[in-house]
Every structure is written in structure tokens, then in C-alpha cells.
Specification:
Blueprint (H helix, E strand, L loop, with lengths): L1 E11 L2 E10 L2 E7 L6 E7 L9 E8 L4 E6 L3 E3 L7 E9 L4 E4 L4 E3 L4 E10 L4 E9 L13 E10 L2 E10 L17 E9 L5 H12 L5 E7 L2 E8 L2 H19 L6
Parallel strand pairs: 1-5, 4-6, 5-8, 6-9, 7-10, 8-11, 9-12, 11-13
Antiparallel strand pairs: 1-2, 3-4, 12-15, 13-14, 15-17, 16-17
Helix pairs in contact: 1-2
Length: 264
């Protein structure tokens, strides 16, 4: 499978709309929904139902100046057993001046024997803001899988102009690493990361708010701190609801503090 997606969103008559697009199976997207007093919703669909070893997925989303979009996936990312090398996915987000992107996909589920490399690249123009959340499970937990995948690599990069603001890379090989060591994940079977990407200084009070939210997410534990790109926070736990709720509460707090409504 060699899937590709290209979408450019621009502001037209005060609304964020798809200006250009191209899709190659299994990718496609649903038409933007203009939501009253909220950001426009764009949904990405992978019709294959999962990712196999050797698959390549390449997506790029461009937001023109002042465009504002909530981007969602239709389902979790299921990574099946790899028999012919790793599956690879690249998501490239380019935000124009004053653009706003809110992207919280469903969880990544690496099945037993899977190999998966996911790269997320973010490019920010002046005054652009992106919220991004990433949740990973230790496997198909309902079937008793726990760190049975071969390898999982997650690489998040953020740049503004020629300056790289952040690179956050995790390279997990359960057979070679003691992931259940208390110094790593311990009893946790899920973990999530929250990113606020911006070129502007971040209010210290907002960082403290996000840190407090992620420190007390029910049966999990986490925290947040400033980064050259804005804010990075993490939470680990044994419940998908706990991890997801923690990231969504952090997202809601940022939306309350930084932006309400659509373009402009």
C-alpha cells in the first residue's frame, strides 16, 4: 500500500475551506463541516482498516494564512504484524501566518510482531498555532497483548523558518528494552503526549495549568513543561479513558486561554 493525501485549506468568505486536494487510496477525506461558533472540522479516512508491514502513507496538510481547522481521524491506527519490514507513515503540516490547527487523532495500536515508523513534521509561520495529541497503547490490551510489537518509532519535529524548535523521538524495542521498568513505563499500558506548537512566548500560568491537569488524571500520572516550541506534556496510565481525558482537558484549557471561534 502506497497511500498519499494532499489538502490545502484557505479562507474564503470568512470560512476555512478546502482549496486544493489530492488523495490516493487508502486515503480520502470527508468534506469540511462548518460548525457554528467553532472551528471547521476536516476528517481524514484510511479505508484500509489497518497498516501492514511495508506500507507507506504520506499525508500533507497546508493551512493558508488565518485558516483554522479541527483535524480528526475516523478511527484508531491499527498496525498489523510485519512480515516484510516496517510500515512507515509521514504527516507533514504547514501552517501559514496566523493559522490554527487542532489535531487529536485516535490512538495508535501496535499489534504483536508489528514494526511501525511514524514521523510528524510541523512548520509554523508567524502567529501560527497547532495543538497536537498522540496516544499509544502497549498493544491489543483486550487480548492480553502487552509490548509484543517488534519496534515502534515516533518522531515529532517542529520548525519555524530555518530554525528547528523541537524534535521529540521515541524508539521502542520491547525485546531489547525494559519498558516495564519503573523508571520507564512501569505498570502503564498507555501513554499520551500533548503538544502546543507556537512561535510566541507561552504564559507561565498556562504551563502550570496544563501541568496540574496532567499530574492528576485519575489512575495515571504525568506533567508538562515549556519547550522552545511551546508546551510539551505527557501522561501514562492503564486506562484509555484516563489518558484521553487528560489530553482533552489540556486541549480545552488551551482553547479557553488562546482562541475561541473560527478564522479571523
Amino acid at each position: 500500500m502506497d497511500g498519499a493525501l494532499r489538502v490545502r485549506v484557505a479562507v474564503h468568505d470568512g470560512e476555512s475551506r478546502v482549496a486544493e486536494s489530492y488523495a490516493r487510496a487508502p486515503y480520502h477525506y470527508l468534506p469540511i463541516i462548518q460548525r457554528d461558533r467553532d472551528l471547521a472540522l476536516l476528517t481524514i479516512v484510511n479505508s484500509s482498516g489497518g497498516i501492514l508491514g511495508g506500507d507507506i502513507l504520506d499525508a500533507r496538510i497546508d493551512l493558508d494564512a488565518q485558516a483554522a481547522v479541527v483535524l480528526r481521524q475516523q478511527a484508531a491506527t491499527k498496525v498489523y504484524r510485519s512480515a516484510c519490514g516496517p510500515a512507515r507513515s509521514v504527516c507533514h503540516f504547514v501552517l501559514g501566518e496566523g493559522a490554527w490547527l487542532d489535531y487529536f487523532p485516535d490512538e495508535i495500536i501496535p499489534f504483536a510482531g508489528s514494526e511501525y515508523v511514524q514521523t510528524t513534521r510541523v512548520e509554523l509561520a508567524r502567529h501560527a498555532i497547532m495543538l497536537f495529541g498522540e496516544i499509544v497503547t502497549a498493544g491489543r490490551l483486550a487480548r492480553g497483548e502487552r509490548f509484543a510489537f517488534k519496534r515502534l518509532t515516533l518522531d515529532v519535529q517542529c520548525a519555524a523558518g530555518d530554525a528547528q524548535l523541537l524534535r521529540d523521538r521515541a524508539d521502542l524495542e520491547p525485546a531489547c528494552q525494559q519498558l516495564e521498568n519503573p523508571a520507564m513505563l512501569g505498570d502503564a499500558t498507555l501513554w499520551g503526549t500533548f503538544y502546543l506548537f507556537t512561535t510566541a512566548p507561552v504564559d507561565g500560568a498556562l504551563v502550570e495549568d496544563i501541568d496540574e491537569i496532567l499530574r492528576a488524571p485519575g489512575d495515571g500520572v504525568g506533567g508538562a513543561s515549556t519547550a522552545p516550541s511551546g508546551i510539551v506534556g505527557r501522561v501514562v496510565g492503564t486506562s484509555l479513558e484516563t489518558v484521553r481525558d487528560g489530553l482533552q482537558l489540556a486541549r480545552s484549557r488551551v482553547l479557553e486561554r488562546l482562541r475561541v471561534g473560527g478564522p479571523g
